[in-house]
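Lecture 7, part 2: worked example. A protein chain together with pyridoxal-5'-phosphate.
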Amino acid sequence: MHRDVAALEQRLQDCSAPQKLIATDGVFSMDGDVAPLRELTQLAQRYRAWLLVDDAHGLGVLGAGGRGSLEHFGLTGDDAPVLMATLGKALGTFGAFVAGSEALIETLIQSARSYIYTTALPPVVAEATRAALRLVQEEPWRREHLQALVARFKRGAGQLGLNVLSSDTPIQPLVVGAAPRALELSQQLESHGILVGAIRPPTVPQGTARLRITLSAVHREEHVDRLLDALATVFAAGECARG
Ligand SMILES: Cc1ncc(COP(=O)(O)O)c(C=O)c1O
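Predicted complex, written out as structure tokens:
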């Protein structure tokens, strides 16, 4: 039930638990599209449920200030009482965090088993994360550049007639269907010097194996063009092989 607000509402209606939690990715990691967070916050209010947003792929990328999926929709932390994200994606370091009310954080500190029994983040990683956060705040051109790369890729993929999922984020999945085909294409791209992971079931549903193209702010326009040229070559070769 991907992005299916009506199905979620049905479940909330059917749920008699005194405490309800809606949990979602901000940006879906294998599809690249964004959760309908406005609708989810409305449902959370209507059914007195908590909303947890895992913004692993939104933080540092979406929103004018890079604050992530909530900012993208003009929402704030008040709309998502449990906001978590990892530091290992856009921020380029390691670890993760949960943001929320003092009561929530205190409860996690006192009773979250994985927190209590895990070694704290090394100070050097914390400091590197602070440096990354400064870049997110002070260098919005990185996000603008990234969005321009996404637009360039989508335009080129459209011209090539490639089956790219509807995503406006740097995660641009290209569904190819069968798992062996995804693996073969990934290997062919690698032989062109391009690293694109082949995502196969059970990570994604059967029959929807895909190439997970991931753009980054350190890419340049010519990298996108090289990727498009390589995709055109490997897909054309596949057509010939099948014909
Ligand atoms: C949505 C989401 N949440 C959490 C994680 C975990 O990230 P990490 O291992 O960097 O904490 C991932 C990793 O891909 C992810 O896609």
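Strands lie at 20-25, 49-54, 82-86, 96-99, 171-177, 197-199, 209-214. The chain has two domains: 5-138, 141-242. Keep this in mind for problem set question 3.
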